[in-house]
Design brief:
The structure is a single chain. It contains 7 helices and 10 strands. It has 220 residues and is of the alpha/beta class. The protein has a 6-stranded mixed sheet with strand order 5-8-9-4-3-10, with helices on both faces. Helix 2 links the parallel strand 1 and strand 2. The longest helix has 16 residues.
Length: 220
C-alpha cells in the first residue's frame, strides 16, 4: 500500500478484515491504530527501530566489519531492523573504523538491475533529499563525515559519520537510508547505556569472541 489516505483507509474501514498488520513509520502506525480502534479491529504494528550493533574489544574485527556493513547498508538502509548505530570499543576503534570505511567506500552505487550494484535507489527522490540534508545538518552540528554521501536522483551514496555529540538528534531517530553512525565506548557498561538510550527497540547485535559474554551483554 503506497497511499494510506486513498487506499489504506479504505482497507482499514472495510468490514471484512478484522485484524490489520502494518509495518512502517510511527506516524502512520498511530493513524492505523486510531482507525482500527474506531472500527473495533485488532492492530498488529511493527514500527520504527534504532538498533545498535555492539563490537566488544575481543571481537573478530574483520567479521564484525562485514556484519556491520551488511546490517547497515542492506537495501540501502531501508530496513527497520538495520543497525542504525554501530558501537565500537575504543580499544579496537581505530582498526575497525579504518576497515569499515574502506569496505563502505568500495560499495557500488547504481542501477539495481545491474548485478554489480550494492547500493540501489531509495524509495523516492524526496527521501533521498531528506537523507542528504540529514547528513549535511549532522556534520554542521559537529559530527565528522568519514564518507559524505550525496544524492543523485533517488540514489544516495553511503555516508559514515563519527564524532557525534552525545545529544545529537540523529542518535535518537531511525535513519531509513545509507548512513552509518560510529559511536565509541569504554567498556560493557557504557556500551549498554548507549545502546539503551533510545525510545526505540526492535533488534540488536553483540560481536565478541566469548558467547557467554555476548549473551550477558545482550540480555542487558
Amino acid at each position: 500500500v503506497t497511499d494510506i489516505a486513498e487506499i489504506g483507509d479504505t482497507l482499514l474501514e472495510h468490514p471484512v478484515p478484522q485484524v490489520i498488520s502494518f509495518t512502517g513509520s510511527d506516524k502512520v502506525g498511530r493513524h492505523v491504530a486510531t482507525v482500527c480502534a474506531a472500527n473495533l479491529k485488532r492492530a498488529v504494528l511493527e514500527l520504527g527501530g534504532n538498533s545498535a550493533l555492539i563490537v566488544l574489544d575481543d571481537a573478530d574485527v574483520d567479521y564484525a566489519v562485514d556484519a556491520a556493513v551488511f546490517s547497515r547498508y542492506v537495501h540501502q538502509g531501508q530496513v527497520c531492523m538495520a543497525a542504525n548505530r554501530i558501537l565500537v570499543d575504543r580499544a579496537i576503534e581505530e582498526e575497525f573504523t579504518e576497515k569499515f570505511v574502506a569496505k563502505v567506500a568500495s560499495l557500488t552505487v547504481g542501477d539495481p538491475a545491474d548485478p554489480a550494484t550494492q547500493i540501489g535507489p531509495l524509495i523516492n527522490s524526496s527521501q533521498a533529499e531528506s537523507i542528504s540534508r540529514l547528513v549535511d545538518q549532522t556534520v554542521e552540528a559537529g559530527a565528522t563525515a568519514l564518507l559524505h554521501g550525496r544524492a543523485d536522483g533517488n540514489l544516495v551514496s553511503p555516508s559514515v559519520l563519527t564524532g557525534l555529540p552525545a545529544d545529537s538528534p540523529v542518535l535518537q531517530q531511525e535513519i531509513f537510508g545509507p548512513v552509518a553512525l560510529l559511536v565509541p565506548f569504554d567498556g560493557e557498561d557504557e556500551a549498554v547505556r548507549i545502546a539503551n538510550d533510545t525510545p526505540y527497540g526492535l533488534s540488536g547485535a553483540v560481536h565478541t569472541a566469548n558467547i557467554e559474554r555476548g549473551v550477558r551483554v545482550g540480555q542487558r
